[in-house]
Amino acid sequence: MPPLTGLQIQKLLPKTNCKECGSNTCLAFAMKLAAKKAHLSECPYASEEAKAILGAAAEPPILTVTLGSGENALVAGGETVMFRHEKTFVNQTGIGLAVDDRMDDGELERRVKAVADYQLERVGEVLRPDLISIAWRSGSKDRFLGALDRVSCLWDRAIAVRTEDAEMLRAAAEKLAGRRPLLASATSATLDELCEVAKQTDSVLGIAADRFDHLVPMVERVREKDGRALFLELRADSLSERIQNNILMRRSALKSQFKPFGYPTLSYIDTGDPLDDAVEAGLEVTKYGSLVVLPEFDPAVFVSLLTLRQNIYTDPQKPIQVTPKVYAIGEPNEDSPVFVTTNFSLTYFIVSGEIENSGISTWLLVPECEGMSVLTAWAAGKFGGMKIAAFAKEVELEACTKNRKIVIPGYVAQISGELEEALPGWEVIVGPQEASDIESFVKSAFVV
Ligand code: SF4
Question: Where are the beta strands (DSSP E) in 367-415?
Fold first, then answer.
């Protein structure tokens, strides 16, 4: 069903214009609903018919599916746009590592621990992998369930179990009761049985097929059974086919409201070449992959994927920001000078890092700039001399230091006069334009 227009929505509302929803008229409220800027629950008089129709229309075209639980849950799907600049992407691509039960205990433990301990901090966010997928390869049920036990003890995030054997998936799902694992994956032959297993064990079912025309009837069968939490694993022979599949599925779900493709996707990558694996995984992150599982843990690959993912899944309308305040860089005291920059996270972390590298301890004044970089904030009137001075007074900068030197970014040298007037008694120093030149600037301007 195509999205309803404001006028179509208005016909479903009571049309009494009582204003209790906060809008002056039912039409105005309907327009907000159409733009997804309001929720029907804000109208206390909405009929059951309106709730049924608008509730279905408000569902994201790609279902939101959760693996695991609590703060370690992996949430996938829920996407509403083809391109991030249209609005934003919602749930970032899950990144996982594959292990299997042929590995000896030491090797299994080493791999799981390596990925469990791995994390990196970037622009104030902690980035880490999301999932371990354990495959049944040994042929021994006992060995597999023992390996699953070890993974389950060492890993508290989402788990996927990989085999097409329905009996083994059932045993694994029962062992992982309460962990909401991914059962990867059902085939046409095991679909009905595994739907029941997923329902009984509160697991999420993956559905695997090699072709669209095999996948679609399987999804429709699941939908008839009301088994809704799914991942779709459409296997591909090449990178181009993989990406074409992802694009076609996303486009069909969003533009044509084709429900069988309205689920998150699952991709196991194993080309045999570590570099090709990294490229394929990167393209999955870039083009609509919901969950991608790599065969090996290589920190160099994971840092690239996690960084790429952060860049793509950051809301373009809400830049990552740090709190406006005075930051201590190093161990500044009452003789330390002050540097100024904006509260765009990337700018803050680069500038503070370069100051630290220079060996000087300073105060770093970071006024509210709505997360803009230096030049953008200045052009938008958020980073002028008056604004910086007003913020310095608000945070009582003069209580931090008796040193009256304040360094501004070289790109906004033109505000130095205004800042000096607004901060009487302070010497405004124009710093370098590029953060990478801070170290040499500090050596020439200050005794370190
Ligand atoms: S609360 Fe409901 S009935 Fe009242 S104005 Fe809003 S939409 Fe109309």
Answer: 405-408
